[in-house]
Amino acid sequence: MDTFGLLLQGFDIALQPMNLFWALVGSILGTAIGILPGIGPALTIALLLPVTVSVGPVSAFIMFAGVLYGAMYGGSTTSILINTPGEAGSMMTALEGNKMARSGRGAAALATAAVGSFVAGTIATVLLTFAAPSIAELAFYFKPADYFALTVLAFTSVAVVMGTSRVRGFISLFIGLAFGVIGIDKMTGQPRMTFGISSLLDGMELTVVLVSLFAIGEIIYVASRYRHQRDDILPIKGGLWMTKDDWKRSFMPWMRGTAIGFPMGALPGGGSEIPTMLSYTLEKKLCKKKEEFGTVGAIEGVAGPEAANNAAAAGVLVPLLTLGLPTSATAAILLAAFQNFGLQPGPFLFTSNPELIWGLIASLYVGNVMLLILNLPLVGIWVKLLLIPKPQLYAGILVFAMIGIWGVSGSTFDLACMVVVGLMGYVMRVYDFPVAPILIGLILGPMAENQLRTALAAAEGNPAVLVETPISIVILSISALFLLAPVVLKRLRKAA
């Protein structure tokens, strides 16, 4: 069946009343957590994993998609009104958006952010619709050695890009790999790194690690640095819509932001920070009213980065759905969610579970419309969330996290692990260790080991099998480039 036919089937699934309800729940939750500073989509999806065990995978992932997109929309509100990005991708929006709000043009800034998010999200979803099946078909030609090369690429790119230090990135990665080998070896049946504890024979519970690192570690960190002071929330001024000139100045930045964000989001390690920075720099160079940048606030500096942010969110789904390759912390959580339901993202998922893939893609179109309706007229209501005191907010998250873990396993050992891993997450946060490589190591480590051993077994132990195919050679070369490029560039700068 062609892509249009599959997409129509996806809309039949996404428009079912129950799935529409979950899309609405995800959109509302996503917008709320995007507005609340410090709570991102990764943390929210990790918290929801234990709760969604009883929900079907299609409904669960439709809700997760709403959370992912909603956080992109909501993050702009705090950036503009209190100069505090709710998400890393909203950092650049704060630069001009807050200046516009202080100049009495907060409504125009919020409107261009919401409409830009809708335009970019819709265009990027169209690109995802047609790009994903083609890439999935190519992946059918992959051999075990090629899949091993892909996991190496994920290891190197995420460890390098997601942290300020390569050393810290690799330490986090090796901690994740250590977590990944705990339990019974699937090929030999021998227990590994269980230390005689029977509860570890099934390995580290993925949900426990995710919730502990993202929720417990973050809560302890915020509590240790909490100061009793309220954020200065700027009132929304300037009407609820944009002028004709605002539309004219925003249109091309939306298009350019989408063009930058989607491919960057699909690249390993691309994330949303790099495309938003590139978009902001480009708009600053192309803008005819350069004097507005950094003074009264230029609307181009809000429109471009917001479009790039939302396009990157859709781009992240391309390698995740087609190859099972996570390129951000949120994508790693989504990969864990797939595995929680006993599913492995990749080319075979398009044939074995088409209703899930196409229902999810169709829900992105529906969710974009929902989010536009939720964000433009109701922005005044969302801002009230910023008045919730942080002690009560984070205490509620802590209780919710503990109930969720207990509800899934009913194990006191898992709660003890939660405390230990949560404290480790706090220490990592304090010393600026990236969390994403731990998730990559934990999730992709066993997969890489399995593909490596399968490839070597087929070649009777000959390691040359790892570089026998053109695909593996190209991917391993890119991996080496990720490792060596920063060192070479640093030396070239010193030489210059």
Give structural notes.
There is one protein chain. This protein has 496 residues and is mostly helical. The chain is 72% helix and 1% strand. The chain is built from 20 helices and two strands. It has helices spanning 3-14, 17-35, 41-51, 57-81, 91-102, 106-139, 144-161, 166-180, 206-224, 244-266, 273-286, 300-323, 329-340, 347-352, 354-375, 379-383, 390-409, 412-430, 436-458, 470-495; strands at residues 183-184, 191-192. Strand 1 and strand 2 form a beta hairpin. The model has no long low-confidence stretch (mean pLDDT 78). Pfam families: TctA (PF01970). The chain crosses the membrane at residues 20-39, 45-71, 107-132, 138-160, 167-184, 204-223, 316-337, 357-383, 395-428, 471-489. Keywords: Membrane, Transmembrane, Transmembrane helix. It comes from Advenella kashmirensis W13003.
Give the helices and strands as they follow along the chain. HHHHHHHHEEHHHHHHHHHHHH
Q: Going across the major beta sheet, what is the strand order? A: 1-2
- Please report the distance between the alpha carbons of the first and last residues: 56 Å
The chain-level structural class is mainly alpha
What's the overall geometry? globular
Rg estimate, integer Å: 22 Å
The level of helicity is: over 70%
Number of strands: 2
Number of DSSP helical runs: 20
- State the domain count: 1
Low-confidence spans: none
Q: What amount of the residues lies in strands? A: under 5%
Largest sheet: 2 strands, antiparallel
- Mean pLDDT figure: 78
